[in-house]
Amino acid sequence: MSLQAEIAACRICAEHLPHGVRPVASFSPTARLLIIGQAPGSKVHESGIPWDDASGDRLRDWTGLTKEQMYDHAQVALVPMGFCYPGKASGGDKPPRPECAPQWHGRVLDLLPDDRLTLLVGTYAQAHYLPAARKLSMTDRVRAFRDYLPRFLPLPHPAWRSTIWMRKNPWFEAEVLPELRRRVSDTLD
Questions:
Q1: What pTM value is reported for the model?
Q2: Does residue 36 contact residue 106 with C-beta atoms inside 8 Å?
Q3: How far is CA 171 from the centre of its chain?
Q4: Which residue, 28, 48, 85, 145, is most buried by CB atoms nearer than 10 A?
Q5: What CA–CA distance (Å, rounded) separates 14 from 137?
Q6: How far apart are CA 108 and CA 105, in angstroms?
Q7: 9-52: per-residue pLDDT in tens?
Q8: Taking CA 14 as the corner, what is the angle to CA 8 and CA 18, rounded to the nearest 5 degrees?
């Protein structure tokens, strides 16, 4: 059974998922761009397509990726911290289930090229992959993005709230987005 099929068949946290199990991830051994987000939202849970919502539209805008590029699993791996929709909480969705990353990430990452660029989208991915920077705020991690290059590039989650955050942090659009787009383009060339 392929790793993709194993993930699709995963039921490790089924008892905690009020809307059922539907693991959403996309990857292949040739993908040099890895985007690690938090967990699928309700729209992605329905469609089964990663980043198939307004957050995905904003992320594509930030990265300069077209839909065709983002969904070309030979180029771009889309691997959330939690593979299934965790359900609603007050103020948004529940956090990603903690079982997924330890169960699956190592095996997925072992398949990917070593020279990949990994976008760490949101605090859950950053806390997991940048443990030494856990004490920093998400804003401070994103502001210090150069410290994590060339392997990682931390980003805020592109939810609607990020527009408010971007207004308060104009350096993100001026400094981070041009570098992000350049690195994504160079990685896919």
A1: 0.96
A2: no
A3: 22
A4: 85
A5: 31
A6: 5
A7: 999 999 999 999 999 999 999 999 999 999 998 888 888 899 99
A8: 115
